[in-house]
Specification:
Structural class: alpha/beta
Oligomer: single chain
Strand order of the largest sheet: 2-8-7-6-5-3-4
Helix content: 40-55%
Distance between the termini: 42 Å
Largest sheet: 7 strands, mixed
Radius of gyration: 22 Å
Shape: globular
Number of strands: 12
């Protein structure tokens, strides 16, 4: 099957780099190649370009104060936020949730082994972390709250403003993993009292291998990589200038087209959800029906193995996923689905579709039609489905 026939619906895993982003990067590989830390003119031009990128991203977050520190991606930014704050204390208490990305959960597990107390909050059946649960978990030794802005698997958008207000009231730092939200929906770090925010370039049509950690002015944090004086001495290593330039261009385009994209993606998302729910029996939509990312469709098909369905869809040229790309290949179901209360057998039958601006209504129709056909075939071979039907006739 040729690339032209592929229907890509896994934009939460990664996105195609925009042509204008690639074009913006090219001169920095071979012409404007100076090391930004050097003193001569061609190097200082790159330094100025990087600083302009920082200002652009700060403005995109509607931040009055704070700075952007470039990282190799969202995972590094998450690790730095948690470890960088924890290292300022000999011990302490951190609040997070059971549905965070593994970049947060595994970092918290690491910190727990090194003497820090971690509270993993439950989510409700829609994947929402209730602000009152955050408040109830606060202790005198709580040093950090880390709750993701929007879930990478089920798309639920968290009540970030309310959680941020609680953090403000108790004078606790608030970090949010916004890897799936940044560039997709508006974010105001000041309004939400966000002290630190993580994001990644390849989720918004930028290059892979670049991300950032926003840190509000006045927040102290330990260095993550030691060496030179780059990133104000907090993250050593020669800056990845082409990737930073590419990220900056992706931010430009993403924020200039955001409202148009949201409108289009919500239309396609809701159409796809309605067709699946109304035309395929024994299906569950995961995540909040309204408070969800514009492009996220996460559904569980009872009496179906999600991996088998994915293979069949792949044969049709349809790219989707069973959950986070970072957990692909694991034998157990998604920790997010289990945390919102799905039984194992239903969680195993889950597929995540995440749409992009190039997807069309006719593609949605084709994909849903193929899903209907494949689900019916898989259920015909399922002893559990046969027993279920017999028990209800």
């Amino acid at each position: 099957m040729s690339d032209k026939q592929i229907i890509y619906m896994d934009h939460a895993a990664t996105t195609a780099t925009r042509p204008e982003v690639v074009a913006s990067m090219l001169p920095y590989f071979s012409m404007q190649y100076g090391n930004p830390s050097s003193q001569y003119i061609i190097a200082q031009k790159n330094r100025s370009a990087i600083e302009e990128c920082r200002r652009k991203i700060v403005n995109s977050l509607n931040a009055k104060t704070g700075n952007i520190y470039f990282t190799a991606g969202g995972t590094e930014a998450d690790n730095w936020a948690l470890k960088g704050i924890a290292c300022l204390y000999e011990r302490g208490h951190i609040i997070t949730s059971k549905i965070e990305h593994h970049a947060i959960i595994h970092t918290c597990d690491y910190l727990k082994k090194h003497g820090y107390d971690i509270t993993y909050l439950d989510a409700d059946e829609n994947g929402i972390i209730r602000p009152e649960k955050v408040k109830s978990a606060i202790r005198k030794d709580t040093i950090l709250i880390s709750i993701m802005y929007a879930n990478n698997e089920i798309g639920t958008i968290q009540p970030i403003k309310e959680i941020g207000e609680i953090a403000r009231r108790y004078n606790i730092l608030f970090h949010t993993d916004a890897v799936q939200a940044y560039g997709q929906i508006p974010i105001d770090v000041d309004e939400c009292n966000i002290a630190m925010l993580s994001a990644s370039g390849h989720k918004l049509r930028g290059p892979k291998g670049i991300g950032f950690l926003y840190i509000r002015k006045g927040v102290n944090i330990e260095s993550f990589i030691h060496g030179g004086a780059q990133e104000e001495g907090l993250r050593a290593g020669t800056e990845n200038v082409p990737a930073i330039i590419g990220l900056s261009k992706a931010v430009d385009v993403s924020f200039n087209t955001m409202q148009e994209r949201i409108k289009q993606e919500v239309k396609l998302r809701d159409y796809m959800i309605e067709r699946i729910i109304n035309e395929i029996p024994y299906v569950r939509l995961n995540g909040h029906r309204i408070r969800r990312l514009p492009n996220n469709v996460n559904v569980s098909f009872q009496f179906v193995q999600g991996e088998s369905l994915l293979v069949m869809l792949d044969m049709d040229g349809i790219c989707a996923s069973a959950g986070s790309a970072c957990t692909s290949g694991l034998a157990s179901p998604s920790h997010v689905l289990l945390a919102i209360g799905l039984p194992y057998d239903i969680a195993y039958g889950t597929i995540r579709f995440t749409l992009g601006y190039e997807n069309t209504l006719s593609q949605i129709d084709y994909v849903v039609d193929r899903i209907k056909m494949h689900v019916a075939k898989l259920r015909e071979k399922s002893p559990q489905y046969e027993d279920f039907i017999k028990g209800n006739t």
